[in-house]
Amino acid sequence: MQLLLRGQDTGDDPMLVLRCTSEGFELHDVVNMLATCELYQQGDMVKRITGKSVRTVRRLLKEAFPVRLDTQQSIIAYQYAWALELATEVFGRQARAESWLQQSTPYLNGHVPLDLVGHALGFRMVEDYLSRIKYGVYQ
Question: Which of 8, 35, 44, 40 is nearest to 23 (CA)?
């Protein structure tokens, strides 16, 4: 998350996240965020966030001026960054968080958390479940 927000601490200020996603994250920062996670380097994560192929993203990264994602792409990038950060906090290590993110879970009706994170409602379900695990609330 720090890579996307360029080190800004959001604390309890969701308006900062709203402003940053409205302005759009720089493509370079999103690619760097993905590079910090072995799970996110696999498959089609760049395409899930940007809607563009890896080849197109590589070309865009060579542009003279920084390329910014649009608001929707930035929101999706934020959701993936936050899901990984929260899962890492809950499970103690990033490797365990990545493992959890790619396994189906009964609480999510057998869905894989990673597959839900790109959708606003799915993200809320994953976030809620991780919060329940974190605080030991299973009702």
Answer: 8
Number of structural domains in the chain? 1
Task: Tell me: pLDDT of 115 over 70.
Answer: yes
What region does 8 belong to: left with phi over 0, alpha with psi -120 to 50, or beta?
beta
Residue 5 lies inside a defined structural domain of this protein: no
The pTM score is: 0.89
pLDDT range class, residue 133, cuts 50, 70, 90 = very high
Q: Which residue range is the domain that position 49 belongs to? A: 14-135
pLDDT level of residue 3 (50, 70, 90 thresholds) = low
Residue with tokens 């609480």: 107
In a domain, 2, yes or no: no
CB 129 within 8 A of CB 139: no
* Beta bridge pairs of residue 11: none
Other Cβ atoms within 10 Å of 38 Cβ, number: 10
